[in-house]
Amino acid sequence: MSTAAGIKIEIRDLTMAYGSFVLVHDLQAEVKQGEIFIIMGGSGCGKSTLLRHMVGLKAPAKGDIFYDQIPFWQSDDDARQQRLRSFGVLFQNGALWSSMTLAENVSLPLAEYTDLSPSEINDIARLKLALVGLKGFEDYYPAEISGGMCKRAGLARALALDPDILFFDEPSAGLDPITSRNLDQLILQLRDSLGATFVVVTHELASIFAIGDTAIFLDAQSHTLLDQGNPHELLAHSRHATVREFLARGALAGQPAAAPV
C-alpha cells in the first residue's frame, strides 16, 4: 500500500473485464489530493468503465482502488457505502429528474443521507445552486433551462453532501465551445475554493489542456494504460506516438492543440 504523502486515490493492479473480454489489465495510477485528474483515450478504451469501477458501480476482475490508503473493493458493504457518501458524481447528461425542480433535484441526497430539516435542506440546495451560478433558477424544471445549465445543476447536486472527491463523465459532451469553456472555469474555481479532488473522463482537448493537472491515456489496442503525466508534457514528450497524435488533433486540424483556453 502506498504511504506517499498527498496521495488521495491509488489504482493498483486493476484489471477491468466483461466476462472473458479484458478491457484494460494491470492498471496502475495515483491521484494526488486537490488535483484534477484526467482519464482520456479513444472510443472503447475503457474511460467510462474505469469511472464506474472508481464510484462503486462495477467490481474489478483483479486489483483494487485505494482511497486514503484504504482498499475500496476489499472493504465490507458498510465501509463501501460510507466511502461512497464522500463522492460526488456528475453524469454525462446531468441525470436530473425531469419531474423535479432544480432545488428538488439538489435536495435529494440531502433528504436521503442527512437528518436536516426540510427548511435546512432547501437552504443548502439554494446555496449549492448559487455556487454554480444558478441563483434565481431554483424553481425551474430541467426542460426549462439549457444543456449547460443542466450540467451546472447536476454539479450542484454532486456538491450537495460536500464531497472530497468529484467524478465527472464527459462534462462537456453536447455543449458549445463557450459553454464548455465556462464549465471548465467553474471546475477550476471549485477546485481552488473547495480543495476537492476531481477525476474527469473527457476526450475534449480544450478541457484536457485547460484543467488537467495529470492525465492517463488508456489504449484500446494494447488494453493498457499507455502513458501518464501532465497533458502539455505528454503532447511534447510522450514516447508513444498514439498519445502525441491524440493530443495533437487540434493542431492537425489547423488549430493550436495546447492553446490557452
Structural description of this entry:
By secondary structure, the chain is of the alpha/beta class. It folds into two domains: 7-86 and 163-252, Rossmann fold (3-Layer(aba) Sandwich); 98-151, no CATH class. The protein contains ten helices and ten strands. It has helices spanning 47-54, 77-84, 102-113, 118-131, 147-158, 177-194, 205-211, 231-237, 241-247, 249-252; strands at 7-18, 21-32, 36-41, 62-67, 70-71, 87-90, 165-169, 197-201, 214-219, 224-229.
List keywords for this structure.
2 domains, six-stranded mixed sheet, 10 strands, 37% helix, disordered C terminus
CATH fold naming of the largest domain: Rossmann fold
Instruction: Identify the strand order in the major beta sheet.
Output: 6-7-8-3-9-10
Structural class: alpha/beta
Hey, roughly how much beta strand do the residues contain? 15-25%
Quaternary arrangement of the chains shown? single chain
Shape: globular
Q: Give the domain tally.
A: 2
Order of helices and strands: EEEHEEHEHHHEHEHEEHHH
CATH architectural group of the largest domain: 3-Layer(aba) Sandwich
What characterizes the major β-sheet? 6 strands, mixed
What's the Cα radius of gyration?
Answer: 19 Å
Helix content: 25-40%
Number of DSSP E strands = 10
| Cα distance spanning the termini | 38 Å
Tally of alpha and pi helices = 10
